[in-house]
Amino acid sequence: MTCVIVEDEKLLAMVLEKMVKEEGLEVLGMAIDAEEAVRIIDDTKPDVVFLDINLGEHDGFYVLEHINYKPYVIFTTAYSEYAVKAFDENAVDYVLKPVTKERLRIAIEKVKRLKASQISESNERLLKVKETINKMRLEKVPIESGDEIVFLNSSDIIYLTSDEGETIVVTVNEKVRTKTPLKNFELRLPSEKFLRIHKSYIVNTEQIKKIIKNYFGSLAIETSNGDILPVGRNYKDNIKNLIG
Q1: Fewer beta carbons below 10 Å: N end or C end of the chain?
Q2: Which CATH number does the domain housing residue 159 bear?
């Protein structure tokens, strides 16, 4: 059986490639963004695609909407367990990160059974999966830090800031440095929960303690851990929208 891997985190993609090869699958290609994924899938026509949802500028559903060839799809992403149960029967399968060999084997066996019985994925089924996942919030945030992937609870993140070409993710328990640009996190994190307040800062709105205004009209935010974050002039409207 052949496959294509669509994953924007290079380290995760390499780990997944090794695991699917151990299960006997031939990897025809790997894509790190949606546009590349569309091209590779249509060119190689794999039996199955391992598809991440968060791919930067476009998401995994952009891929499904733009490919002409329709393979089996196994979602590989970082949502909470309750969300998995909500749509598990409507998709070929969903594998929660971090991916385990046992869980991946189950997903591949499902595809093999479908393929053997010549059951193809319908557009209606993919639409049901999309509608279900659109109702879910991202609970786990995978962050590539050094030679490892750290999975953080989104609710534990206080804010993110750029620093000398890196991003520092400040949580209630630790600080994690990553080379992933801040703008990528802005696209990946749920917009109803995380707010861009400065070219160098994104804050978790649930971790805002107070909004501070000085004599000159400048704004700042005090977070739950006592840090003071500046609000850029171009982002004041975001704060106004937050407080209504």
Answers
A1: C
A2: 2.40.50.1020
